[in-house]
Amino acid sequence: MSDTLNTVILGIVEGITEFLPISSTGHLLIAEQFLGERSDLFNVSIQSGAILAIVLIYWRRLTGLLLHTREPQNRDYLYKLTVSVLITLVLGFIATRLGFVLPKTVMPIAIATLVGGVAILGIEQYVAGKPQSSEITWSVAIWVGLGQMLAGLVPGTSRSAATIFAAMLCGVTLRPAATEFAFLVGIPTMFAATAYELLKARHEVGSADWSGVVLGFVISAVVAFVAVKWLLRYVQSHRFTLFAWYRIVLGVALLAMLRMGVVH
Question: Phi/psi class of residue 36: alpha, beta or left (left: φ > 0; alpha: ψ in -120 to 50)?
Answer without folding.
Answer: left
